Amino acid sequence: MYYIGIDIGGMTIKGGLTDENGKFYAKKAIDTKPEREYPEIVKDIAELCKDLAASAGVDISEVAAVGMGIPGTIDSAKGVITYSNNINFEKVPIVKEFRKYIDVPTRISNDANVAALGEARFGSGKGSKDVVFVTLGTGVGTGIIVNGVLLEGKGGAGAEGGHTCLKIGGEPCSCGKRGCWEAYASATALIRQTTRAMEKNPSSLMHKFAAEEGKVSGKTAFLAAKAGDKAGQAVVDAYVKYVAEGIISMVNLFRPDCVLIGGGVSNEGDYFMKRVQRRVNRFSYGGKRNPRVEVRKAELKNDAGILGAVALCL
Amino acid sequence: MYYIGIDIGGMTIKGGLTDENGKFYAKKAIDTKPEREYPEIVKDIAELCKDLAASAGVDISEVAAVGMGIPGTIDSAKGVITYSNNINFEKVPIVKEFRKYIDVPTRISNDANVAALGEARFGSGKGSKDVVFVTLGTGVGTGIIVNGVLLEGKGGAGAEGGHTCLKIGGEPCSCGKRGCWEAYASATALIRQTTRAMEKNPSSLMHKFAAEEGKVSGKTAFLAAKAGDKAGQAVVDAYVKYVAEGIISMVNLFRPDCVLIGGGVSNEGDYFMKRVQRRVNRFSYGGKRNPRVEVRKAELKNDAGILGAVALCL
């Protein structure tokens, strides 16, 4: 059978047609144009599905199901987008609307959840039934799989691991609370930490690397640290602790088979990943008496959303 | 059918024979004598089961299953106690050993997990499929039920919510890490916070209440606060924040139907519970757009362990 996975983003909607093994037969993307009313966007998604089927030479009746990953709070049981941060979606009955055009079983979930499912089914978590997926990007997104099933919570409002506490009363977070993990471990937070350290250390190599890139980015402190810069190393040391500490909280709660890290920072390689792994090994509850949890880089990258949306249907 | 629930503690082993509705037909307790080798303790547990059946006038063959709640890390899938903090149990194949005496299906899990299951099935979480249970005692224990199933994690090493982070690098915790929720929200932590505040405030009413009780306890600051003592109120205010902040992390991850609080502090009534509820309402992710999570007092008290062990069998 064939499946269609749709990855809805604020700028782009990506779609893919695959089989149950995640093998692609077609892949396409369209602009979201998020300022539009939802029926127009949904109509475009249905067109995208038909295009995918056509270019794979598959009749739409051969598509067993369609899955969609959507940013925001998604009530998957009801097939409704409760609200979305990036797109003008509020209380949108997307499944019902979509099936006006293509009447196949249609599953939806939050984009981080869906990416987690994709990694667990087809990516670096393949073969694992219990997976915690963490994206370190603009925010900290988490997708959690327990016994092979997505943890979604009431109304799809769970799995918001980015908003677990890291430092009570600490840095303000976009959610209105202070001290969330996201306020310390997101790429946004890393850039803020880097900028602060640069102000205090005018001779740090971070200034050189930021000038070369034309901006302070999530790479700046890593580049300086790898070149032996003390101030850069201090930023990376602290950031490793922030990331690891939040992962340890997840490990203590879920004790999954593995924790997968996605997002730009995961490209820092062993320099980053191995140090996070060491802290997780050392400080997770029960130490060596409890099963070790491997921290791995997520591997599906841009396809995680599409393949996760397919996995929603399986 | 009949079921037997066994609640194994460091001092006492309690047992009860009930039906599937949690109605008691017999209840008994024996001393654990935890210094003994495990086969002796298991033999006593089997005797306890036979006694329970006898005093209920039930033949042991009418008992459908036996459940046990045990402190420590429990590998429920294997029926093995990995290790226990309070009893001399390490790698104990308790299910196999027990079935030498009474060969019925036997289920085991961690005591906080089992208590959570008891509250969800028969107590203040009755009718809920998604429950987070928190005990504020010597430590902070958590039991988590997702879609009606206990969250146990690999090797039973999950659901250690007491060791999620509250303040990175903060107070040392018994687990070897710093800043765990348990190091701020346990009754032990509250007593430490009270003692520190008393040292700084020699005229606080906390001294009077501690003298009356003969010791500083988890009640001292609450008694003083309720009597209008400023220093006592400051202790309670901070403690409410610590408890609520950890609950908010749980809500953001699990978004359960309800959070149940057990342990001595839950007896402080509305003065405590309503203030925790207000913070949870205000700071949980998504605010009013997301489903509200009710914070309730656990109600089964001493029977939670036995009834939870029965619920393990259902």
TrEMBL record, chains A, B:
Where does the record place a coiled coil? none
Q: Which organism is it from?
A: Candidatus Stercoripulliclostridium pullicola
The name this protein goes by in its record: ROK family protein
Family the entry assigns: Belongs to the ROK (NagC/XylR) family.
- Cite the Pfam families for this sequence: ROK
